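TICKET: design request
STATUS: open
ATTACHED STRUCTURE:
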């Protein structure tokens, strides 16, 4: 059977754009499923894993040992977790034959799948379904044209076989356009309180010597929610737009986020630089400058440990999964 299904009739028609506006503002939201399958068992690692994310935060998981969806956040404990694409359907029996195309009859190999849906600010919907083999793009689904798009020539035989099975494409289209969107709205409703909360960032500035006459200032902000934050380096009243090294907001396992941004400066100019933070959880912006303190190194060690614990919730397997899945990109070849 393709779907493990939850009863949708309880949702009603009202779980549309009105629900999203009332629950979670007008920002876009995504529901994604990340599948990982390893060709053979490895001691200490799972052979199969599904991670479910609401936006970019993990909310549930499924593995080959428990064989059931388990909530990862308290509010998901009240939600029925019976709807997802069956692993036996996602990892079709014809996929293992692909390894023969790579002359890889023995040894470890992995399949990765990313599928899900997005509800944009204007109410429009997007669905996606990508396969990766050993961390590289393999094939993806075009739900509008009901066809499979190859990312490499070795996937062409799979494309031909799958397109000879119209029901396979129709079922996937239905999940992406109907089931996934219903589930996304349900989870947004159930997680309303968590999604509406405001957690202000905690900030700190550190420094290190890069080379002669060059110093690096690092601004850290962590423990904040929602994700949106304005973080900039300033020189007096001037924004250091081009001097600031690229920065990314990353999730912690407790449904908060962290960010850090750095800038190279002349140590003699250090007193002119400060980090400017703006966030919904703050009553007023934070202005942070580096200050030397006797216990600065001890504080930094504690902060680093806190951050590491926050972003590594599931051990080495999840790190492997994230590494492999992030290498998958939208296909460019047909």
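STATUS: resolved
RESOLUTION: sequence designed for all positions
ATTACHED SEQUENCE:
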């Amino acid at each position: 059977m393709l779907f493990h299904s939850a009863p949708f009739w309880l949702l009603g028609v009202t779980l549309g754009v009105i629900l999203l506006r009332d629950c979670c503002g007008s920002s876009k939201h995504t529901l994604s499923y990340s599948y990982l399958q390893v060709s053979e068992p490895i001691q200490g690692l799972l052979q199969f894993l599904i991670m479910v994310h609401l936006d970019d935060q993990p909310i549930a998981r499924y593995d080959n040992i428990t064989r059931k969806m388990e909530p990862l956040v308290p509010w998901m404990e009240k939600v029925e977790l019976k709807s997802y694409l069956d692993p036996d359907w996602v990892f079709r029996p014809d996929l293992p034959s692909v390894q023969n195309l790579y002359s890889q009859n023995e040894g470890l190999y992995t399949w990765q799948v990313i599928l899900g849906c997005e509800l944009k600010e204007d109410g429009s919907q997007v669905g996606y379904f990508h396969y990766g083999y050993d961390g590289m793009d393999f094939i993806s689904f075009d739900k509008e044209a009901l066809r499979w798009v190859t990312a490499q020539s070795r996937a062409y035989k799979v494309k031909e076989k799958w397109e000879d099975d119209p029901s396979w494409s129709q079922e996937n289209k239905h999940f992406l356009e109907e089931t996934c969107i219903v589930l996304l709205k349900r989870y947004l409703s159930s997680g309303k309180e968590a999604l509406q909360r405001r957690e202000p960032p905690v900030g700190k500035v550190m420094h290190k010597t890069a080379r002669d006459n060059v110093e690096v200032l690092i601004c850290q902000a962590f423990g904040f929610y929602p994700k949106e934050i304005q973080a900039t380096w300033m020189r007096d009243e001037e924004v250091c737009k081009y001097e600031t090294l690229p920065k990314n907001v990353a999730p912690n396992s407790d449904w908060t986020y962290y960010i850090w941004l750095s800038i190279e400066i002349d140590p003699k100019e250090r007193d002119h630089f400060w980090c400017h933070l703006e966030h919904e959880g703050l009553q007023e912006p934070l202005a942070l400058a580096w200050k030397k303190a006797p216990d600065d190194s001890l504080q930094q060690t504690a902060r680093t440990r806190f951050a590491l614990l926050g972003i590594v919730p599931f051990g080495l397997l999840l790190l492997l999964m994230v590494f492999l899945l992030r290498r998958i990109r939208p296909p460019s070849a047909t």
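CLOSING REMARK: The two ends are 30 Å apart (CA to CA). Helices lie at 17-24, 87-90, 98-101, 156-163, 166-190, 192-196, 296-311, 315-326.
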